[in-house]
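Q: Hi! First time asking for a complex rather than a single chain. Here are the components, and I think there are four in total. Is that enough to go on?
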Amino acid sequence: MDVRALQTLRAVRTQGGVTGAAAVLHLTPSAVSQQLAGLTRDAGVPLTERVGRGLRLTAAGDALADAALDVAVALERARSACAEFAGSPTGTVRVSAFQSAARLLLPGLLTRVAARGGIAVECADEDVAQDAFPALADRHDVVVAHRPAEGPAGWGDGVRVVPLLREPMDVAVPVDSPLAARAALAPADLDGAGWIAVREGFPVARVLDDIGVRAGTVPRVVQRINDFHVVEALVAAGHGIALLPRYSCGGHPGVRLVPLAGVRAGRQVDALVRPDVAERRVVGVVLDELVALAAELRRA
Amino acid sequence: MDVRALQTLRAVRTQGGVTGAAAVLHLTPSAVSQQLAGLTRDAGVPLTERVGRGLRLTAAGDALADAALDVAVALERARSACAEFAGSPTGTVRVSAFQSAARLLLPGLLTRVAARGGIAVECADEDVAQDAFPALADRHDVVVAHRPAEGPAGWGDGVRVVPLLREPMDVAVPVDSPLAARAALAPADLDGAGWIAVREGFPVARVLDDIGVRAGTVPRVVQRINDFHVVEALVAAGHGIALLPRYSCGGHPGVRLVPLAGVRAGRQVDALVRPDVAERRVVGVVLDELVALAAELRRA
DNA sequence: CCTGTCGATGTAGCGTCGCTTCATGGACGT
DNA sequence: ACGTCCATGAAGCGACGCTACATCGACAGG
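A: Yes, that's all I need. Here is the structure of the assembled complex.
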């Protein structure tokens, strides 16, 4: 039972296919397919089944992929077992964050980690649909992701979740709007307004829907924009109002953020780490700095 | 970090050297040495150090060997994860037992396992010094071992221990001896007697010493014989008395077993299994049958 | 003190295994 | 029906790990 093939199986599951797995593993699809064939051979049962032009894991394959994760954890523990004796942790950690969190967290993280010395942090900004965040954990060691604060965590069980921040969502209105004078806004106050939302399937898209449900109406979405800076510019120009996170949006002069009243609306920012890479000491250090930084920001 | 090399490191520890490990792994010493070199290279710290003409694991090597065991367990769990889907357990299990336990347990075990079908049991009888029992777990799946019943288990932490039987040790005396008429014998009754003991370092050798300590004298050992049948023949011929396990010694007509009074003396029979092989379903089945058989014998 | 043995470790050579490249075969959308 | 996408085979090549053999140091005996 080849260990590399086991990890490949895991990647096939998270990436949803041979081609995707091949990409994150830096292999050709053919190699992945061959590994799967070999694994199936000495498993004795089919691990994958074709569905359309892609494929999917069978129940046995799913169980084996779960076990593969434990194998990876044990292996990484072995690595760090002798890293204990090798001195202070060293290496490079790849961190990915969605745009606004990257702006909020990465600068501070880099200085904090640099202060300890010996650890390199490779940053990347990747913002994807909510379902796709866990898959990023194959390409990066730490993935900063976000989701509606209310409701369950919802990041499958292939990743370890480290909560970082809970950020309220405020209503962004033009400064010259009558709404801007209010201290707080109830859902009823917003009835009939034109909303600038994020693209379907992306995090916090559902938050707006929830507000609509509580108000008894369907929010009228006039635009779908993911970049908050663009949203601010549109709001300032009077093209609609929007839900924006309170802290990670640098105040556009033409926009005012007004708290919501009557409903809890927020987004939760989490760090996602694959259990095996969580065993690496360096990753643990970076993660510690990240939560410490988040705590500091929460106090400010 | 190569998995095979990790298991090799484990074997080097249990077998006490490169040559021994090579033997149980069916490799040449050179291959083992090369694996160790490679492992040391990507561990970054020395894992072994020379001592005399042999070698010993360093602290880092010891920690890594511990971790290697967890890796093996995780891997075996992966194997059995899809074996769940492959139907009823099948395969061959290698069982080793010391002489008297083999006589007592193996016949019943074979019939019990044969009744289930699909599982082959390869038997072997190996009786070694007490310290050497755990090392046998590299060559066999299940090792039936024995030790003084009083005192701690004492089988290192590289094996899982499954208790099977506790067997009292009786005093074997010639039937024509005046001692044979007694219902029980206290240590004081045996003062000055000539003992036939087992070889130094072998299990239950210390039981006799314990009795001496309680009686305040040092037992006078006249012979050291490991095979209980030979011991019985010598006792019957009047060459000394001996401590023999009550159940697993078929009564020699010239020998009578008299219980000890005043001291608890017994041997504990355990099954030793390496944690990773314990994950194999077949091994679990055989082990279950073994404890069931032992329970049945205990009742009889 | 020298010698023989034992155990670990290097070196040369060979087999095997897994990867890439290229080609094939279904499945879906236009 | 055609082109595209995705998984999978076949051929070839490179790398890795093994065996066989030689070497070196450590211990025991003459």
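A: Chain A has a mean pLDDT of 91. Let me know if you'd like any chain examined more closely.
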